[in-house]
Amino acid sequence: MAQGSNTSNRALVRGAERALDQFKYEVAREIGLQGIEDGYWGDVPSAQCGAVGGHMVRKMIEMAEQQMAGRTR
């Protein structure tokens, strides 16, 4: 699918794009993904990109659960 054609793939909160992008790179480093420091993800296999997205979702759910429980990180 061409970049920009998926209109649902955007931040729902205005101004969150930069934070989400930083979060993506943080998670990628945590799982040991290398070669993306320059911002180019074209050489990264789709399975690894999916792993980054999956870990992002898990961490966001964890943060939301902690916030709901009255704890902050």
TrEMBL record:
It holds the Pfam family SASP. SASP are bound to spore DNA. They are double-stranded DNA-binding proteins that cause DNA to change to an a-like conformation. They protect the DNA backbone from chemical and enzymatic cleavage and are thus involved in dormant spore's high resistance to UV light. This is Alpha/beta-type small acid-soluble spore protein. PROSITE patterns: SASP_1. The keyword Signal does not apply. It comes from the Bacteria. Keywords: DNA-binding, Sporulation. One of its GO terms (molecular function) is double-stranded DNA binding. One of its GO terms (biological process) is sporulation resulting in formation of a cellular spore. PANTHER family: SMALL, ACID-SOLUBLE SPORE PROTEIN A. Belongs to the alpha/beta-type SASP family.
